[in-house]
Structure formats: C-alpha cells, structure tokens
Design goal:
single chain, 278 residues, mainly alpha, 12 helices, 0% strand, globular
C-alpha cells in the first residue's frame, strides 16, 4: 500500500453511499427516468473537478459543449426508448441527485489520488476501497436480516454461487478498466466513455431484439456523435511570442573579432614604439 487507510475509508463511504442511493431510487422513478438523470453525471464531474484539493482541473469551453451534446442526445434516445412516460417523484429525484453528487465526487477523488501519488495501482485502490466498505455494509445486513436470508437462498439454489462468481469477475474487469481510464485520461473523459457505453448497450438491444428505430432515436444518436467528435478535437493553442528575440550569434563573433583586431593593433603599436626608442 502506498496510501493511508483513511483515504480508502473516505473513498469507500462515498462509493457505498452512491450505490445505496442508486439502488434505492429504483423504488420511486422507473428505469428510463433514472437513466436520464444518471446520464447527466459528466456535468457535475466536470464542475466538481475544479474544487477537489490536489486536482482543481479546468476544462476548455468546447468540452462543456461536448458534454451537453452527449447528455441531451442520450436523454432523447432514452425518451424514445421508453414505452411509458418517465415517472418522476420528489423522493426519487432527490435520491438520484444525491447519487450523482457522490459519483462526481468519487471519480474526481480517485483521479486526485492517482495524481498526488502516481505509484498507486488500480488493484490496490479497488481492493482497499472494497475492503474498507465492508464495515458500512455488514452491520445493516445483520440488522435487517438480509445476510441470513441470502445465505439460506443460496443454499437452496447452488447455481447462484456460479452467477455470483461470474458477476464478481466481470465487475472486477470493469472496475479495473474504469480506474485505468481515470488514471490515464481523467474523471470527465471516463464519464464520457461510460455514457458512450450506455449508448452501445441500447443499440445492441435494438440489434438483438430487432426493435424499430424512430426519428427521435436518430436525433439522439446524431447529438451523441457530435459530442464525441467535439471531444476528440485537439486543443489549438497558439505559442507565445517572445518579447525580445535573442541576438544572432554573428554579432557576438564580430565583437570577438573586433576585440582581437584591437589587441593585435595595440601590440604592433607597442612594438613599433620600442623599436623607435631603440
């Protein structure tokens, strides 16, 4: 370990809070409404990145425009995919909003840890944050009795163990990949990648289940493509001009040659003076 445990305890608390609010909010709005709110994650990530100690990242204006295009495009696509209108409730909106704030803080905190201590590995962060979350998870499970119910249910249906192992392996690969993206490209770019992943998931569902695509789907995909292309554009920064250019090297050489000629001339004058005295 290259980071203290208190760092991972804070990270675990934010992670557990985000998961708890996200899962709990499903009891109030339906899934399309939650997906719409979660698709705006990149905006609080970019805003909060300017206030995280040790990070204080600033983004150029075109990246904010790119994020807005991605968010609006995914919202249009999600609304077109919903057969019923999204069910908004005050409690659900508050829970999803809290989850968004925690997600924004989580990604920037992970990026700050990688920035301040480059020796941090993705495996260490994943292991320590998961292990540090156990004190936040086990007491509620014991208090509510969910742990014993889950144990008896798995004993009655042994295939659940195989499903859990496969899910754990897939989650490990996904989480390590996300941490690599955060370490290499930052929290905002990683949030954009996760939004693009949601779009690919929706498109695959249309290809597999042969669902019809509407004009609203096309508009959403067009905005998403524009946002991705705008994000990939490089920053064109004009180089700073020097106020006073350095003198050319010939001037210095000419000055040296003039000094040498002056010294040679003075020596010859001294010699002539000596000869005339003699």
């Amino acid at each position: 370990m290259v980071n203290p445990w208190k760092t991972y305890v804070k990270l675990s608390a934010v992670l557990m809070g985000s998961h708890r609010l996200t899962k709990g909010s499903l009891a109030f709005p339906n899934y399309p409404a939650q997906l719409m709110f979660k698709s705006t994650k990149i905006l609080p990530v970019m805003v909060m990145g300017a206030f995280i100690p040790g990070l204080k990242r600033k983004y150029p204006p075109h990246e904010y425009v790119s994020a807005v295009l991605l968010v609006v495009g995914l919202i249009l696509f999600t609304l077109a995919d919903a057969h019923t209108s999204p069910n908004f409730s005050v409690i659900g909106v508050l829970m999803v909003s809290g989850a968004l704030i925690m997600d924004a803080f989580l990604g920037n905190l992970q990026e700050a840890i990688f920035t301040m201590n480059p020796a941090t590995t993705q495996t260490e962060m994943l292991f320590c944050s998961t292990l540090g979350g156990m004190p936040f998870l086990i007491p509620p499970m014991l208090f509510t009795g969910e742990l014993f119910k889950a144990w008896s249910s798995c004993s009655q249906h042994p295939y659940v163990y195989g499903v859990l192992v496969f899910e754990a392996m897939a989650t490990f690969v996904g989480q390590v990949s996300v941490l690599f993206l955060i370490a290499l490209f930052g929290a905002a770019t990683t949030a954009m990648v996760t939004i693009a992943r949601k779009v690919v998931t929706l498109l695959l569902s249309y290809l597999i289940f042969t669902k019809p695509l509407t004009e609203q789907h096309g508009s959403g995909l067009l905005l998403i493509s524009m946002g991705i292309i705008l994000k990939m554009l490089p920053d064109n920064k004009s180089p700073k001009k020097r106020s006073t250019p350095p003198p050319p090297p010939m001037v210095e050489n000419e000055a040296h040659s003039e000094d040498e000629r002056f010294q040679i001339g003075s020596k010859e004058a001294e010699k002539k003076g000596c000869w005339s005295d003699s």
